[in-house]
Amino acid sequence: MLRKKIKKWRHVFKLDPNRLLSDLALKMICTSGTDAIIIGGTDGVTFENTFRLLERVKKYPVYCVQEISNHSAVVPGFDGYLIPSVLNTDQSYWIKGAHFEAIRTYGSLIPWNQIVLEGYVILNPEAKVARLTKCDANLQARDVTAYARLCDQLFRIPVFYLEYSGTYGKAEIVKAARKGLQYSRLFYGGGITDEQQAKEMAAWADTVIVGNLVYYHVEKAVSTVKWVKETKLRALK
Ligand code: 1GP
Predict the structure, then answer these.
(1) Which atom of ligand 1 is nearest the CA belonging to 40?
(2) What is the second-level CATH architecture of the domain 2-229?
């Protein structure tokens, strides 16, 4: 069951089916010791490019899930599926509308125990996903704590995902998210490029997600696995 699996994830790579990655780089990522690979992206994601990347990842014994951004690109055969719901937008399509469409289309074919919902809070206003979903990325720490509580206590969503995609975030904000969480797992993703950043976020987030770095410095990306895993989660005072 995916919900149980994610509780053990400390480090995850996110691969974009719309970006090129050599066979050697893919091998390095898949054999890095990461806990899982997420395949997903914001634009240009199709059934074909997702299927091709899944086929390449499947050569390796690594857990691989699809993060669905568009239901026409859903590919059967993944170990599980992550479904984002954007909490800091007023656009109902990105909160639950796309989800409704997908459920209406696939109905009883959906393997519910392979699916986990993610409550997304997007904090980089320049990110493609922020523009697409028209989210309000200008949040203070207390807003982030409130979104965390909304996700955790009210909606009981298993994952609270702080998404800084493309830029490095603020530890104070990640701590503010932690403060509001008891039940949801805290995912952090965004701009990790070195040891200090990987360790800083790994001290406060349950799961650290590395994306972009894979595409311009794969050796460093592989090192993030060690940096994250040797960092202990810190307790909030
Ligand atoms: C993107 O959160 C992930 O969805 C990771 O962010 O690509 O900036 O590493 P980066």
Answers:
(1) 4
(2) Alpha-Beta Barrel (3.20)
